[in-house]
Sequence to fold (290 residues):
Amino acid sequence: MSGIIKLGVIGDPINHSLSPNIHKLFAERAKIEIEYLAYRVASSNLENFIKSFFKDGGTGLNVTLPHKVDCLNSVDEFSLIVKKIGAANTLRREKGTNKIFADSTDGMGLIKGLHGAKINEIKSDILIIGAGGAAQSIIHNLQDRHPRVIVIANRTKEKIKPVISRFPPLDYDDLYPNTQVVDIETYINQWNHQGFHTVINATSARKDSDFKWCESLPIEDATNFYDLSYSMPDETTPFIKWARHQGNSSVRKNISDGFGMLIHQAALSFEIWTGIKPDTNISKGELFNG
Ligand code: ATR
Fold:
């Protein structure tokens, strides 16, 4: 086998993807040679592309919107987490068998991103705003940290129930709470509020005014806010602008965008493909300007 490891990311659109630059930095620092390209792949060509990429010697692919669910039709095996969330962001060719294996690093990327933002020890209530694919990709890993409860709020209420039904309490021993996932109405009516430990934005909202509907949510005591979206170095995401005005102004809030999660989910993919844990100490400036 030649030394160069053939990798890539598929999506549509794909020109905004930071993944090629992130993986280039990982490889430089790990002193290995990779080729990591961004491929714009239409849905109609998805299966053909995935199969050809691996048949032609590809080692791994990241998968982004809109293919995270449909890519599963083109793979041979899934990780447990992919089975649970019904979506993948990392495909690899298994050595020996050449089978295509699907995994998801988003949820663990979030947990590492939260740690990086010093949002640790998630024992009390978590609020996730949004009920699309981004929300689904993180719920299992959050459940696995045993918060008291995970609450879902979404602009379109009907979309919450199908998400909740995917995530029954994990079957653990008595040492941990079996974290339930509930909708915001159930939480308000049936749980005693302890204040949210962390509020996570999993919507694709793009405008500052998009978070106005969240004003009715009981987040007055929340002190940690984490956005799965990230912004350019000199910009701020709408969620972060909104979060700054929430709650008690005399209490110090911990507010972070999803840049850390972006780097960590990429690092976990890199490790799946190469066996190397890359150096994740990457700044926004380095990535956007370099
Ligand atoms: P993804 O896979 O990125 O999560 P998605 O499945 O389209 O994308 O889901 C997007 C999420 O962002 C949804 O929860 C969506 O809310 P609706 O179900 O009400 O559409 C939410 N979202 C998108 N634009 C929004 C906006 N302007 N305000 C509030 N929520 C928004």
In short: The first helix runs from residue 19 to 30. The chain has a mean pLDDT of 94.
